[in-house]
Amino acid sequence: ITFCVIMFAALQMVRNWELLSNYAVENTLSPYTLFLMWLVYPVIKLLHELGHGFAVKRWGGEVHELGIMMLVLMPVPYVDASAASSFRSKYKRMLVGAAGIIVELLLAAVALIIWLNIQQGLVSDLLFNVMLIGGVSTLFNGNPLLKFDGYFVLADAAEIPGLGVRANKYYGYLIQRYVFNVQSIESPIMAGGESLWFIVYAAAAFVYRLFLMVAITIFFSNQY
Prior knowledge:
mainly alpha
């Protein structure tokens, strides 16, 4: 059912893309929308984190910690879902990692469907923020090149724990071993095929983060 709702909403988004994009350009950075976003964001993140927690419980794990941290003056809920690392099935670990993304996509999908079928007002403005936060957050959170949920899903899928850190260490190892001829250094590779993963992942993550930094800087310089 969740997949069907998300796919239906995706089709509606394509059909109404001009309407959505124009509305977003005109309203996203207005003080009113930013205030509503400040109100809605913690609620969405609470449901996101509960998704991780319930997924851990679903597969027999225990969740011992749930709380709130302050991130740029905004209360952000968190759940300790580290118990999933003890699951023997990588697919269960991947589902725990993806649970928050699925929750946000479902919220954004439902919000979009309702938003397209009601008159503009406070409710529609709140729904727009749910769409915006769920959609933009998923772009970042689901991207494995940033150390968020998508990263952990990829690491579990490849069965390479600590993928990002070890990939960076592998580049350091190559430089010290073959450029500075340090003989005593040990390679972080622990299994066959990891070297290719490390080379590709570290390079892709570096280029993407650099691109992201430049893109955000250009966007805000154009806006302000």
